[in-house]
Amino acid sequence: MGREVHPGYRLPLYFTENEFSIEDTQTYGRWSFVLIEKGSGILSCGGLQTPFTSPVIVCINEHEYVKIVVSSDISMKSVYFDPLVVNSKFNFENVHYPHPNFSDTEEQDLYLLQPFVRRSLEYPRIFTIDTANAQHISKLLWQMNHTLVAQSDFNWPCRSRSLLLEVLILLSKLIDQEKSLTEEKDADKWDRVNDILIYLHTHYSNKISLNELSRMFHVNRTTLNHQFSQLTNLSVIDYLIKYRVQIAATLLRDTLLPISEIMERVGFHNTTHFWRMFKKHTELSPSSYRKQNCWMYASGE
Questions:
Q1: Which of 12, 104, 260, 288 has minimal CB crowding within 10 Å?
Q2: Residue 188 predicted with pLDDT over 80
Q3: What is the pTM of this model?
Q4: Residue 217: domain span
Q5: CB under 8 Å, gap of 24 or more: what pairs does 293-297 form?
Q6: Listed residues 96, 131, 166: the one ending a domain
Q7: Gene3D superfamilies this protein is in (predicted)?
Q8: Is residue 169 one of the residues assigned to a domain?
Q9: Strand 56-60 relative to strand 13-17: parallel, antiparallel, unpaired?
């Protein structure tokens, strides 16, 4: 709830930490994103009991009731939200049964919500993740909560939403990686590439060079790029730039944060380079992309 800045404004986004039960989302009509950072136990949902060992992510939609029936030394962060936090055109009905008139950019936003909508081998309710990604997500959630509580400037609603969007983008990448992993037969080769992907996904806001990665992963530049491109069809730097642009594009169409802030957030520290790379991947400048695709302009938010 907005206080001094945007007084009375309601943002359906709520954070809790170390609540040792997962609340009934059906009672409140909301979704829940839970990061279990520490401990182990058993989750129960719909008569099915699933054991887990941290770190894991649990995605719960408004139809599901999930509870921890057995736990040991649990530490967790939870975010409750409504799908309209991602895009004002979304509601619980049309994310489950997508509107045929959704635009391409709305379909891209909808893809970020699939872990809450779909239930399959590709989209289980519980995702096991590595420690580095868990720590990065934990940091983003902490920053989101700090922004929600502090409400320090005009952009606090967009900034807090943007941090949730970064989490959802990363989760979509982790799911895509898992698909690639199940299809890859050379496990040793994948292990190194997976470690590099983890680093890129958790350090994209920093300056990253191929020489730095080569030293860090104890492999020459040529071999590193060759193995990486075999599994991703992109060079390391091309993948990094594409990921940065993906995050920037999402924040441009789903928030009103200043373009300069978005540029720095995703790891571009030179305006000319950012505009050139963004236009290369989207065929539009950042400002034109926002004018054409930002739903907040159209809705008058």
A1: 104
A2: no
A3: 0.93
A4: 184-299
A5: 293/103, 293/105, 293/249, 293/252, 293/253, 294/252, 294/253, 294/254, 294/256, 295/87, 295/88, 295/89, 295/106, 295/253, 295/254, 296/88, 296/254, 296/255, 296/256
A6: 131
A7: Homeodomain-like
A8: no
A9: unpaired
